[in-house]
Amino acid sequence: MGIEGVLSQVQHGLIVSCQALPDEPLHGADSMVKMARAAQQGGAVAIRANGATDVRAIKQALSLPVIGLIKREYEDSDIYITPTLREMEELVEAGADIIALDATLRPRPGGCKLKRLIDYAHEHGVTSMADISTLEEALHAASLGVGCVSTTLSGYTPYSAQMDGPDLELVRRASELVPVPLIAEGRIHDPAQVEEAFRLGAHAVVVGSAITRPQLITQRFADAARKAVKSIYGDERQN
């Protein structure tokens, strides 16, 4: 699938991020394939997955495009989403249709350059997705030839906007000013926020934790339950 083809396929659709870290209950390719299949049945147009093993397994099981990334920490950098050429190579080999990578302006491990990673994706016919935290980073990534940009990291760098919900102002400004498709992602918790992101110009919207991390979903409801009980009963403890 060509670069323009995969971006056209996800346009105006919901992308579901199916990820579970090693310390989470659903960690493992088998669980992520089941989660991805459920997302597909629910209407997702693509899946975002972490790790070559999960990417490969989901590609084999589903017909949807897969956005692949690899979270890997290096001692000399704060960047951990597809930080180096090593991760790019693994994701290309796994069959990722789009490769998401941290495109913030922070130094990469070992002095690796963002431009080299973007070029590598293009050389292998794979779309690159720049995960950014500010408009400046989005514009910089676009100038380097990235296929699309995503607001994934807004609020996750110390210098970007800090808020509980999605950075919809960044979605609006980037949609207007960045000359490549803009993907809205990050702390999108309810359908109304998805609708607003599209109204502000998003090419597609990614939702993750609100759909695919049951421990966090449960925590939101449990916190609401505790708050309600405290409001109704004060400090009484109910059996």
TrEMBL record:
<dbReference type="GO" id="GO:0005975">
    <property type="term" value="P:carbohydrate metabolic process"/>
</dbReference>
<protein>
    <recommendedName>
        <fullName>Putative N-acetylmannosamine-6-phosphate 2-epimerase</fullName>
        <ecNumber>5.1.3.9</ecNumber>
    </recommendedName>
</protein>
<dbReference type="InterPro" id="IPR007260">
    <property type="entry name" value="NanE"/>
</dbReference>
<dbReference type="Pfam" id="PF04131">
    <property type="entry name" value="NanE"/>
</dbReference>
<comment type="similarity">
    <text>Belongs to the NanE family.</text>
</comment>
<keyword id="KW-0119">Carbohydrate metabolism</keyword>
<dbReference type="InterPro" id="IPR011060">
    <property type="entry name" value="RibuloseP-bd_barrel"/>
</dbReference>
<dbReference type="GO" id="GO:0019262">
    <property type="term" value="P:N-acetylneuraminate catabolic process"/>
</dbReference>
<dbReference type="GO" id="GO:0047465">
    <property type="term" value="F:N-acylglucosamine-6-phosphate 2-epimerase activity"/>
</dbReference>
<comment type="pathway">
    <text>Amino-sugar metabolism; N-acetylneuraminate degradation; D-fructose 6-phosphate from N-acetylneuraminate: step 3/5.</text>
</comment>
<comment type="function">
    <text>Converts N-acetylmannosamine-6-phosphate (ManNAc-6-P) to N-acetylglucosamine-6-phosphate (GlcNAc-6-P).</text>
</comment>
<dbReference type="InterPro" id="IPR013785">
    <property type="entry name" value="Aldolase_TIM"/>
</dbReference>
<keyword id="KW-0413">Isomerase</keyword>
<dbReference type="GO" id="GO:0006053">
    <property type="term" value="P:N-acetylmannosamine catabolic process"/>
</dbReference>
<dbReference type="GO" id="GO:0005829">
    <property type="term" value="C:cytosol"/>
</dbReference>
